[in-house]
Amino acid sequence: MQLRYSFRMYPNDPQRLALARAFGCSRVVYNDALRARETARTAGLPFVTSAELSKQVTAAKKTEERAWLGEVSAVVLQQSLRDLDTAYRNFFDSLKGKRPRMGAPRFKSRKDIRQAVRFTANARWKITTGGDLSLPKIGDVRVKWSRTLPSTPSTVTVVKDAAGRYFCSFVVETGQDETLPKATPEVAGQVGIDLGLTHFAILSDGTKIDSPRFLRRAEKKLKREQRRLSRKTKGSSNRTKARIKVARAHAQVADARREFHHQLSTKLIRENQAVAVEDLAVKGLARTRMAKSIHDAGWSSFLTMLEYKAVRYGRGFHRIGRFEPTSQVCSQCGIKDGPKPLNIRVWECRACGAVLDRDINAAVNVAKAAGLAVSACRARVRPELVPAQREEAGTHRDGQPTVVGIPSI
Ligand SMILES: [Zn+2]
After folding, report:
1. Do the domain assignments include residue 185?
2. Using an 8 Å Cβ cutoff, are 75 and 119 in contact?
3. For residue 127, how many other CB atoms are within 10 A of its CB?
4. Which superkingdom does the taxonomy of this entry point to (predicted)?
């Protein structure tokens, strides 16, 4: 299985300059190639091949106006052409209906929020014995290695994000040999997960999981910085400063969210032999009024993590169809009594009389639809059946237990 590992990099001033040059050259090569293809298209000429574009880059280096392309690693420029090819391939595939619709490749701008260059094995980059990342025509850059790479990667991508931070990112091949011990019998071995609007996730055992405090705090800070930015006069230097602060707060929210997703997915995979989720088909849902909350909650990236960890640790992972009517069916007796408006959180089943909690009922139905053996009684809202608190569980505002502390990975 392929996994991406990213690490923070701390280039010094000359290295920052060299990286800025690499980002710039890579962008120019991309835009020149895109222009060549667009010009050919409007003139009714055949599609310009990658080999032809590659020749044009070599020729451009000999001209006065593009001579500076020689100051960066040739591999970076070649990779930029490959990126353009990928963008075209995806676009053509989307026209043929092989993937969701997307626009034609677009010109890159120096104002793009994310800048990236890629070095392959041909570029002879390496990790030095001192633990620096040695990049051709840039130098030995200091890296904070937060975890060990499971195998030696062949390619490294260097990224500068909107907050001005640098990262090196590797794709590495990992085996499936890191199987966790089997889940202990006292923990529910199989679990259904419903991703809700009132909570981040609800488990079929009745646990309701909210975003942790560190994520909520980061989100609050982002809102504050956004408000400050909106009050600054356009074109002022204070506005520029405020914009950088917003970008930084954005990055912190993204980091906190990723951390939360990692912690929660690891916990769920560690404690269960099998997990079942509802397929979100986020693209379809995103068009509805739920769009904002879906994107904020980042469910799709959470599900991706959950799935790859399940594969990696030999756990079962089930995605049930998005049209499974999980909130229309009573998890106790199985009767389907139709859709209920979103504001109905609790109802009584007309057939069996069970009083059901909307979210937990859905989570139990998800587990059942995936064929998991889960106890259905958790979905019932009765004093004697209030879900047992799991370790470190606290109490949420609405009186439902909430996991507040999740052990780190
Ligand atoms: Zn019922």
Report:
1. no
2. yes
3. 18
4. Bacteria
140 catalytic? Reply is no
Terminal-residue alpha carbon distance, the chain: 19
As a whole number of angstroms, the distance between CA 103 and CA 90 comes to 9
pTM of the model: 0.62
Domain total in the chain: 2
**Token couple for 325:** 């009517």
Among candidate residues 114, 141, 173, the one where a domain is terminated: 173
Give a yes or no: residue 391 inside a domain.
yes
Q: Is residue 408 part of a domain?
A: no
Separation of 352 CA from ligand 1 center, angstroms?
A: 4
**Active-site pick, 194, 225, 271, 307:** 194
pLDDT digits (tens, 9 = 90+) for 370-409: 888 776 666 665 433 334 334 333 333 343 333 333 333 3
Residues 130-169 pLDDT 10s: 999 999 999 999 999 988 887 888 899 999 988 889 999 9
CA of 278 to the centre of ligand 1 (A): 21
Strands laid side by side in the 393-395 sheet: 316-320, 274-278, 190-194, 201-203, 208-209, 401-403, 393-395
- Give per-residue pLDDT as tens, 71-89: 999 999 999 999 999 999 9
Coil, strand, or helix at residue 329?
Answer: strand
Q: Which amino acid is it at 251?
A: A
Look up 32 and say whether it is catalytic.
no
What secondary structure does DSSP assign to 72-94, as a single string?
S-HHHHHHHHHHHHHHHHHHHHH
Among candidate residues 32, 278, 307, 357, the one labeled active-site is 278
